[in-house]
Specification:
With 393 residues, this protein is an alpha/beta fold. 42% of the residues lie in helices and 13% in strands. The protein has 14 helices and twelve strands. The strands form three sheets. The chain has a seven-stranded mixed sheet, with helices on both faces. Strands 9-12-11 form a three-stranded antiparallel sheet. Strands 1-10 form a two-stranded parallel ribbon.
């Protein structure tokens, strides 16, 4: 019997982070006291002023199709914000595409520039979906590994060592999921020099760019020069900084030809991101003081949890962990236990009801990922259970 599934469907893997989160929720539904550290979303509600703008749009009947690339007023505000806050000059509303989620923005970027046989360089550890998206486009993921000692960041020299005539795209994620690492300006300058010299594109995933600690500065590679901007696709969204994960609103910022192609792709797939939701996003950009107040409140809580989890994990014999500088993840090393990350996580969930994501899902089997977008009580209880578990190992 012929396979009923396409090559793409047969080759794609389900999201490991969603699998862990689903399993944890299933156990909770069975009445188990699970400490779930798998979810990648803020445990805060969307700010009221954003919800009010969305409700107003609904009441006013703004529920019809809109331009495929997004609400014009929202894209104009995005161009202004990228200039004033991120230092990316010379952008117009037409350089932006508003999509149904940051994940889809990444997918659009990759589909717009990667052809079958093209190679895409992905630093590891990486977000779980990048390799699968590249494969969906017919491309070949090429991995470059950076471990704990390099603060999980690859160098321009490492990237250059795997560049071939087939290389089309480099993917960067700063702040990083799963490590919380942030690339410095000088590190990005070196990578962009290479990209420009070799005529490569860079997809810079900046979804966590507003979630930073210890006065860390996030630099977009597109802000480094006009030439760098022409070689960079910036993807982001409203999910993390504004606690709007379920709203599914992502953004793509790209040079004219790539933005136009991404808009055309979206027109043939999803038409447009939800119309009334975009009025909520517009309110987030039109009310910067309210947005900043909400963000700062959330960041202060995340920072406290970050330090609590970081100190607690480093206090467990056999585990070591670098301090994350952004996002809301921590990526401890568990290699001293002599187990694969999948076995470690499976046993931890089975024996102590603590759900974390194996590092193998992110291209680093020596580590596991915790999200600290959870309550203080979950962190305290989870650390106590982790200490018991590791003592047995």
């Amino acid at each position: 019997m012929k396979s009923r599934l396409s090559t793409w469907a047969n080759n794609i893997s389900p999201s490991p982070t969603l699998i862990v989160d689903t399993k944890a929720k299933q156990l909770k539904a069975e009445g188990k006291d699970v400490c779930g550290f798998g979810a990648g979303e803020p445990d805060f509600d969307t700010p009221d002023f954003i919800k009010a703008a969305c409700k107003k749009a609904l009441d006013e009947g703004k529920t019809k199709y809109i331009a495929s690339s997004g609400l014009p007023a929202l894209r104009e505000r995005l161009a202004e914000m990228y200039d004033s806050r991120m230092g990316i000059k010379g952008l117009k509303a037409s350089n932006f595409v508003v999509s149904p989620g940051g994940k889809f923005s990444c997918c659009l970027a990759i589909m717009a520039v990667v052809s079958p046989g093209d190679e895409v360089i992905i630093p590891a550890p990486y977000w779980v979906s990048y390799p699968e998206m590249v494969k969906l486009a017919g491309g070949k993921p090429v991995f470059v590994k950076a471990g704990d000692s390099a603060d999980f960041k690859v160098s321009a020299e490492q990237i250059e060592s795997v560049v071939t005539p087939k290389t089309k795209l480099i993917i960067l994620n700063s702040p990083s999921n799963p490590t919380g690492a942030i690339y410095s300006k000088s590190e990005l300058e070196s990578i962009m020099r290479l990209a420009i010299e070799r005529d490569l594109l860079v997809m810079s995933d900046e979804i966590y760019s507003f979630l930073t600690y210890d006065s860390e500065e996030v630099v977009s590679p597109a802000s480094l020069s006009d030439e760098a901007r022409e070689h960079t696709i910036v993807v982001s969204g409203f999910s993390k900084a504004y606690a709007m994960t379920g709203w599914r609103l992502g953004t793509l910022c790209a040079p004219d030809d790539i933005a136009k192609a991404a808009s055309s792709l979206q027109s043939q797939t999803t038409s447009n991101a939800t119309s009334f939701a975009q009025f909520g996003a517009l309110a987030a950009l039109e009310n910067p003081d309210l947005a900043r107040e909400s963000l700062e409140s959330m960041l202060s809580v995340f920072d406290r949890r970050r330090l609590m989890l970081w100190e607690g994990i480093n206090g467990i014999k056999g585990m070591s962990c670098r301090k994350p500088k952004g996002a809301f993840y921590i990526f401890p090393n568990i290699s001293s236990f002599g187990m694969s990350s999948s076995d470690f996580c499976a046993k931890l969930l089975e024996e102590e009801l603590v759900a974390v994501v194996p590092g193998s899902a992110f291209g680093s089997d020596e580590n596991v990922r915790f999200s600290y977008a959870v309550s203080d009580s979950v962190i305290e209880k989870g650390l106590a259970r982790m200490a018991k578990f590791c003592a047995r190992l």
